[in-house]
Each structure stands twice: as structure tokens, then as C-alpha cells.
Write a structure and sequence with these properties.
heterodimer, A: alpha/beta, Aspartate Aminotransferase, domain 2, Aspartate Aminotransferase, domain 1, seven-stranded mixed β-sheet, 15 helices, disordered N terminus, B: alpha+beta, OB fold (Dihydrolipoamide Acetyltransferase, E2P), three-stranded antiparallel β-sheet, 36% strand, globular
């Protein structure tokens, strides 16, 4: 790639062109870089006695408190109104999200959140709901939950769904508790104690199994980036409660032995838990129920678009097979000729619910947005979305594989995994490469995960991104790679250059975290 | 006193029936700076291959497995207090735990220095 072209691609951006010949001035007097503000803490801007509002003198004496009187200052920061407005506006500008730009964080499905979802969630009657309202006054809301449950069951080809889990890991817990309940019901609680988890699993999988009291037995991967089928079969036995498999897996690959895995685990008397975090790759194309899966959580906030990752809550409904459906937790919605109602207590259920996972009925705000996403897309639109997500990931793979090292050959699903082999002997690490991407205005991809490859770079573009965005991203990565291969390791070691804070000391931050602002001595003295 | 190695990048050094276990410089290089270390309590019975200690770096969390069975006689509190100690001297003062071995024969299955070096070279 020529330097001129790389300069073109930064038009209108606050970036240094890749390969640009003029080194930017990196230090400013204020610490801000252009309009990237170095915003202090609100306490650091405080001046004693300054206030944004005129409060009348308080005439209440101390008699009502029996002579008790505060001796020390409250410690609230003293700022004017415009200072406060500016402070929080600037902080909000530092919040990089999917609304700001490309967010290729693998394993996270950072897709656009359509504004029609927000419109629906704010509709009168939905926005003001309270979970303790009488059931007669929330018939529409219960119908919404029931309709969403219907869509989820239909897309998954499963007979039942537990709607209440609050997010992915909570859904895992729900699924594994259902498996545990089923095993207890069979009278095998004391003998079936081992859960098989592939080494490429999400870290929450083994944690969930352990939290449910199972021992975790790791299954190795093969050189195709998938579960080693023979190694898996060798681990089966009558002490195995189940397997927790992520499909597509965290290498962005479809586990194409999935049906053999399902048959084998069932034959051994165990259950098949599938981590559905990567459902965005297969919505409308594959029904988990057809793969022999017994339970799977869906990250509604990922696959069906709601703000997440610090931007909002999640929801992790769990679909269940015939074998596990009786053990689904309360509450759940039922309807008959008298309308909709909630089964709230184990004793009121005809089945054998293992209990309750959450106060109230689930994450209503996420339900509304997810159902809106489904209904506004339709079945054909959902299939188109998952197809485009896979196409976009494969476009990245195809456009980068000649210069970056793809970990596993062949087509990928919704995300593409590279390792750091292409950086070998350049002196540049995955971390350095990611920091240089920040200067280019891109949120880095997922780094160092999954652990099954060295120096992982995991990218998930989702269906949201246009070809223009992907092309700019590809051009940027290729340009950065040119720079790394040319031996300019210092350029990477010094990145990021264009942020108010440069390379942070992550080790010190982890070893000695400073979690609370404490008043410097001078400031405290001045306040006295 | 010879040092042996595992495929999980632990080293083990034996003095009588007491084995001292740590992680190799290669392991440390892969993990990056350690930010948290947990070592086992003395008295804990362990089987070869059990998770005996935990390390967390800025990149990842991993387990340290015991290469031999026996009873833990000591955990290195100094590295739990200051994980940076391991970075300075992984093969010496950065040791993790000591085990009173119940079966010295288990050592025979481990790699010597030459074999471990060849193993690491083969990982690239």
C-alpha cells in the first residue's frame, strides 16, 4: 500500500496517517490532544466554597438531632454549573461505543442497536411498567414476554425456554442447574459429577460447572481448532453429567462434529449444554434443537441488539429440550382463556422447577428491544443478518490472510481468529499492535483470547458494518503490518500517541489499584 | 540435584523427598507481568496433575499444576504478597510450593533441561 493512499484514508479523522512522514507533536501544555480532553476528576477541579446554586441559609437549629452536629466538611466538590455540565459532557465523549465507530471486539457481538428498539422501549405502557403491578394491568407485557418466548423457541427449535436469567453467565448457571436437577431426579446426583469443557470454551463455562458443584474436565482441541472428537469420547463415562460446548466456538469455527458429540454424550447418559453466545452466526440457518442440544442460553443483548458491555443490562434466556423442560425455573408466563398469568411458585407448577433465579420476571427492557429487533427484521431479515455477519468476518479473513496469520484454515463463522505469528521477529506484540490501532481511531479487537493460540487477535465485525468501514479497517491493519515488517517497532512501543494518556502501566494498575480519590494534603489544608 | 520440567511449564527441583515447584522463565514470558499469585496451604494432599496454585497476569489467568503427588509442606508467601518476585527470579526465589513426595517414580516421566528446551523450541 502506498503512503499516499494511507494518507487519503485518514481524511476527516483525528489520526496520523499510516506511514506519514511528519511525526506529530505529542506533548501539549494542557495535556489535551486537540479536542481529546485530559479531563481531571471532578474532585480535582473543586474549589472550596464554590457552588452552582444559591441555597438559602438553613435556619434549622441542632435541637432536632439532640445536639448532634457534623464537625467535618461533607467533602462534596465545589463547582459552578457550567463546570459540571462540561465535565460530564466530556466524560460522555470518552465513552467509545458502537455508536462512535467500528467495535470489532470478538466474542462480544457489538452490533448496531436500531433506534426503533428504543422507541418501542419508551412507549407509554412499557416504559413505565413496574414488576409488582397487578397481573390484570400488565396483560400486554406478559403477552410480549410470551411472544418473545415463542420466537426464541421457534428460532432454536426447542420446546421450552426459561426467560428470567439476567445475562449470559446467569443463563449458563440456569442451564447447568437444570441439568443438575434432572440428574438429581434420576437419582444419580452422587455419581454424575464430572462436566466436560473444551479448552477453547468461554471462561465462564468451567466457572459455572464448578459453581454447580461439578468437577471440570478439560477436552483438548485438535489442529482444526475444534473439539478433538476422539479425546472427548475417551473421557465419557457414567460419572459424566454433561458437556458444555460453545458453538460456533471461540475460534470462530463451527463445531461440525456437533451431532456426533450430542449422540455420544446422550449415549453416555449425560446432557448437552451449548453456550449460545455466538448464536449471531447461525440465526435462521441452524436450529440448536436439531443438533441434539439439551439447553442453550441466548445473549439477547448480543444477538438481538441491545446496548451492552457497560452500556446496559443483558438478558440470557435458556432454551431447553424435552428432557430438561420440566426443571425450568419459575417464574414463567402461561395463558389460557382467562388471559396471561405468571406461575411464580414451585408449588403452583405442574412440572418440577428447580427454583427461582431472579427477583421478578426477567430483563423487560431487553425483552422489548429484542422482540422489536426480531419483528422489525422478520424471519428473512434475521437470516440475512446472520449471513451478513458471517460474510463480513470472512471478508476480513480473505483481505488480511496474506499478511496476517489466520490461526485455522477454511471459512470462519461470525468472527475470525488471527495469532501473532505474522509479528514474529518484528519486536511488535499483539498488545503493541492493538495500541497503534487506537491512534488510528479503531477500537482494538479482542486480544489474547482465546488462549488456544499464541497472541490471539479475534475480530467480529457483525452484520452492522458497511464495506467502506471494513475496507478502511483492512487498509489500516495492512498499513500497520507494513510498518511492523519494516522494522519500526518503536512506533508501536510508543503507541498510543494521540490519547490524553499514553501507554498505561497495566501491571501497576492491577497490582496496586487506586480505587478511591483521596484529597491531597495542600487541598485539605486550604479547605480548613 | 537436578531440575525437571513439565509440558505445562513447571520446573521441579528435588532435595531428598522434598520437591520444590515453580514456573519456568518461558511460562513467565508468555504470561507477561504477574499481578496475582495464590499458593497452596501446607498440609494439603495433592495428586500429580492437580491444580496447586494460581497465577494471573495482565493477559490471562492460569493454573500451576503439581508434577508430583504428595503433601504440600510449604507455599511461598513472599510471591503471594509481591508477585513481582517471580518475575525477578522464576527459577529461584520465585518458587511456588514444596511437596513431600509420595512417589519419586513420578519424576521419571518428566523432561530434563535438554528435552524441555527442545519442547519449547518446537512450540513456535
Amino acid at each position: 500500500m502506498s503512503q499516499d493512499r494511507s494518507r487519503d484514508m485518514s481524511q476527516g479523522r483525528t489520526n496520523v496517517p499510516v506511514g506519514g512522514s511528519q511525526a506529530p507533536a505529542t506533548q501539549t501544555i494542557s495535556g489535551s490532544k486537540g479536542l481529546e480532553f485530559a479531563e481531571p476528576l471532578i474532585f480535582e477541579m473543586s474549589e472550596n466554597g464554590r457552588t452552582g446554586v444559591d441555597l438559602p441559609d438553613v435556619s434549622v437549629g441542632d435541637e432536632r438531632l439532640g445536639g448532634m452536629r457534623r464537625k467535618d466538611a461533607v467533602g462534596l466538590p465545589g463547582l459552578s454549573e457550567p463546570q459540571v455540565v462540561r465535565h460530564y459532557t466530556r466524560l460522555s465523549q470518552k465513552n467509545y461505543g458502537i455508536d462512535s465507530g467500528f467495535y470489532p471486539l470478538g466474542s462480544c457481538t457489538m452490533k448496531h442497536n436500531p433506534r426503533v428498539n428504543e422507541k418501542a422501549a419508551r412507549m407509554k405502557g412499557l416504559g413505565d411498567l413496574h414488576p409488582m403491578q397487578p397481573v390484570s394491568s400488565v396483560q400486554g407485557a406478559l403477552e410480549l414476554i410470551d411472544t418473545l418466548a415463542h420466537w426464541i423457541k421457534t428460532l432454536c427449535g426447542m420446546p421450552a425456554v426459561a426467560m428470567s436469567p439476567a445475562a449470559g453467565a446467569h443463563g449458563e448457571l440456569c442451564g447447568m442447574m437444570a441439568i443438575k436437577a434432572a440428574i438429581e431426579d434420576r437419582g444419580e446426583a452422587d455419581t454424575r459429577t464430572r462436566v466436560l469443557v473444551p479448552e477453547s470454551a468461554h471462561g465462564t463455562n468451567p466457572a459455572t460447572a464448578a459453581a454447580c458443584g461439578f468437577s471440570v474436565d478439560s477436552i483438548p482441541g485438535d489442529d482444526r481448532g475444534r473439539v478433538d472428537l476422539e479425546a472427548f469420547k475417551a473421557k465419557l463415562g457414567d460419572d459424566v453429567a454433561g458437556i458444555m460446548l460453545t458453538n460456533p466456538n471461540t475460534c470462530g469455527l463451527f463445531e461440525n462434529d456437533v451431532i456426533d458429540i450430542a449422540d455420544a454424550i446422550h449415549e453416555a447418559g449425560g446432557y448437552f449444554y451449548c453456550d449460545g453466545a455466538n448464536f449471531n452466526a447461525i440465526v435462521g440457518r441452524v436450529r440448536p434443537g436439531d443438533l441434539g442440544i439439551d439447553c442453550m442460553h441466548l445473549n439477547l443483548h448480543k444477538t438481538f441488539s441491545t446496548p451492552h458491555g457497560g452500556g446496559g443490562p443483558g438478558a440470557g434466556p435458556v432454551v431447553l429440550s424435552e428432557a430438561l423442560a420440566p426443571f425450568a425455573p419459575v417464574p414463567y408466563v402461561v395463558h389460557d382463556t382467562n388471559g396471561y398469568r405468571l406461575v411464580e411458585h414451585q408449588a403452583d407448577s405442574d412440572a418440577k422447577p428447580f427454583g427461582r433465579l431472579k427477583g421478578y420476571h426477567g430483563q423487560m427492557g431487553v425483552f422489548i428491544r429484542s422482540l422489536t429487533f426480531m419483528l422489525s427484521h422478520g424471519a428473512d431479515g434475521l437470516l440475512q443478518a446472520s449471513t451478513d455477519a458471517v460474510l463480513n468476518a470472512n471478508y476480513l479473513r480473505a483481505q488480511l490472510q496474506d499478511v496476517m496469520s489466520v490461526s485455522f484454515g477454511g471459512m470462519c463463522m461470525h468472527e475470525v481468529l488471527f495469532d501473532d505469528h505474522f509479528l514474529k521477529d518484528t519486536g511488535v506484540t499483539t498488545l503493541d499492535f492493538a495500541k497503534a490501532m487506537i491512534d488510528e481511531g479503531f477500537h482494538p479487537m479482542t486480544m489474547y483470547f482465546p488462549l488456544v493460540v499464541h497472541g490471539a487477535l479475534l475480530m467480529e465485525p457483525t452484520e452492522s458494518e458497511s464495506k467502506q468501514t471494513l475496507d478502511l479497517y483492512i487498509q489500516t491493519l495492512r498499513g500497520l503490518n507494513d510498518r511492523a515488517q519494516a522494522g519500526d517497532a518503536d512506533f508501536f512501543k510508543e503507541a498510543p500517541r494521540l490519547t490524553p494518556r499514553r501507554r498505561l502501566d497495566e501491571t501497576a494498575a492491577a497490582r496496586k489499584p487506586v480505587l478511591r480519590w483521596t484529597e491531597p494534603v495542600e487541598q485539605a489544608e486550604a479547605a480548613e | 540435584m537436578s531440575v525437571k520440567y513439565t509440558e505445562d511449564h513447571e520446573w521441579i527441583s528435588v532435595d531428598g523427598d522434598i520437591a520444590t515447584v515453580g514456573i519456568t522463565g518461558f511460562a513467565l514470558e508468555q504470561l507477561g507481568d504477574l499481578v496475582f499469585v495464590e499458593v497452596p496451604e501446607p498440609g494439603r494432599a495433592v495428586n500429580k496433575g492437580d491444580e496447586a496454585a494460581v497465577v494471573e497476569s495482565v493477559k490471562a489467568a492460569s493454573e500451576v499444576y503439581t508434577p508430583v503427588s504428595g503433601e504440600v509442606t510449604d507455599g511461598n508467601g513472599a510471591i503471594a504478597d509481591d508477585p513481582a518476585t517471580v518475575t525477578g527470579d522464576p527459577g529461584g526465589s520465585g518458587w511456588f510450593f514444596k511437596v513431600k513426595m509420595s512417589d519419586a517414580g513420578e519424576l521419571d516421566e518428566l523432561m530434563d533441561e535438554g528435552a524441555y528446551k527442545a519442547f519449547v523450541d518446537g512450540l513456535d
